[in-house]
Design a protein that fits this description.
- By secondary structure, this protein is α/β, with parallel strands linked by helices.
- 32% of the residues lie in helices and 25% in strands.
- It has a five-stranded mixed β-sheet with strand order 1-7-6-4-5, with helices on both faces. The chain has a four-stranded mixed β-sheet with strand order 8-13-12-11, with helices on both faces. A two-stranded antiparallel ribbon has the order 2-3.
- The two termini are 25 Å apart.
- Bound molecules: coenzyme A.
- The site of coenzyme A has 20 residues, from helix 2, helix 6, helix 8 and strand 12.
Length: 330
């Protein structure tokens, strides 16, 4: 029987207007531009300001423009997978809220939580729904309003994260060998204590004490996370190359999760990929968690050519990590 393949057929992104620079952070915590730039590669990040605005509000402009570009209506979407660590609320799913806001009346949807690896996990899951023949248009959204869970008194985390969102449409392709070719996805829950939010879940529901102890913010042990990220992201990227008999020259672009420029450099070096093939926008947006990879796809879309071999690589809290091999289909 003819196998159905899933391909990305459109991408778009959105970042809010407000720019939080390293210099502004110097007025909030004991840090400086030189330290942040040399340790992370980040110069500025975007922040969603304004009452009543949530992660779904970052997704609405990204998705609406994506649909316009593809020339389809929201009612044609079958499924929405919303990859986020900062859902609008614990329930219902932000996917449902987004469906309502954009008028995706015929879609069902759910949220996917895999921290910074979420978008790669979401693409892999969405591709399976297409490959099964069950659905024709799956929207995978990756976005976070990280500023809603960042403690701007904590210099270990506030320098890193920002707000942003991107989306990709998956559709079946008749062309053999194009689209999502392979993925390697991993997780190890024993790493959860190094990057997590201590309270607000069923383990420690919100109390006056948990709020006073500032436990509703992202907590990170940076050195440990760095160590695991640098090894695992590079390993998984190398694994997908080996599995698919790819050498560095075969790869047109590496699209890595934008956690830290040094982690990106280590991954590229392990793969033998030169700097000009590595997609990097961390200096402008910081780490937008689920948003980094789709924002990169959006910003580099015009440079991608049909048939380009693209490798995605991600690492996130959990720990979670993964890579994906895509042959760009348009
Ligand atoms: C957070 C991170 C940039 C910190 O860099 P680091 O080299 O590990 O820094 P350390 O935490 O060891 O701190 C080194 C020194 O800088 C200081 N420091 C920490 N944060 C600082 C800041 N924002 N500004 C200035 N100094 C800072 C520390 O207090 C420490 O000082 P000391 O030597 O006097 O004790 C780095 O660990 C990292 O990027 N980790 C991975 C984070 C990540 O990618 N998370 C997302 C995963 S998806």
């Amino acid at each position: 029987m003819h196998k159905i393949h899933a391909a990305i057929t459109a991408v778009h992104g959105y970042v809010p207007d407000y720019v939080l620079t390293n210099h502004e952070l110097e007025s909030l915590v004991d840090t400086n531009d030189e330290w942040i730039t040399s340790r992370t590669g980040i110069k500025e990040r975007r922040i969603l300001k304004g009452e009543g605005l949530a992660t779904s509000d970052l997704a609405v402009p990204a998705v609406n423009t994506l649909l316009q570009k593809r020339g389809i209506g929201a009612e044609e979407i079958d499924l929405i997978i919303f990859c986020t660590t900062t859902p609008d609320m614990p329930f219902p799913a932000t996917a449902n809220i987004l469906a309502d806001k954009i008028g995706a009346k015929n879609a069902w949807g759910y949220d996917l939580q895999a921290a910074c690896s979420g978008f790669v996990f979401g693409l892999a899951t969405g591709a399976s729904f297409i490959e099964s023949g069950r659905y024709k248009k799956v929207l995978v959204v990756g976005g976070d309003k990280m500023s809603s869970i960042i403690d701007y008194h904590d210099r270990a985390t506030c320098i890193i994260f920002g707000d942003g969102c991107g989306a990709a449409l998956l559709e079946p392709t008749a062309e053999e060998g194009y689209g999502i070719i392979d993925s390697v996805l991993k997780s190890d829950g024993s790493g959860r204590e190094f990057l997590h939010m201590k309270a607000g879940g069923s383990l420690r529901p919100a109390t006056h004490e948990s709020v006073s102890a500032r436990e509703h913010f992202a907590y990170q042990e940076g050195k440990t996370v760095f160590k695991f990220a640098v090894t695992n992201m590079a390993d998984v990227a190398a694994e997908i190359m080996e599995r698919n008999s790819l050498v560095a020259d075969d790869i047109a672009w590496l699209v890595p999760h934008q956690a830290n420029k040094r982690i990106i450099d280590a991954t590229a070096s392990r793969m033998g990929i030169s700097d000009d093939k590595v997609v990097i926008n961390i200096e402008r947006y910081g780490n937008t968690t689920n948003g980094t990879i789709p924002l990169c796809l959006w910003e580099w879309e015009s440079k991608f050519k049909k048939g380009d071999n693209i490798v995605l690589a991600a690492f996130g809290g959990g720990f979670t990590w993964g890579s994906m091999y895509i042959k760009w289909a348009y």
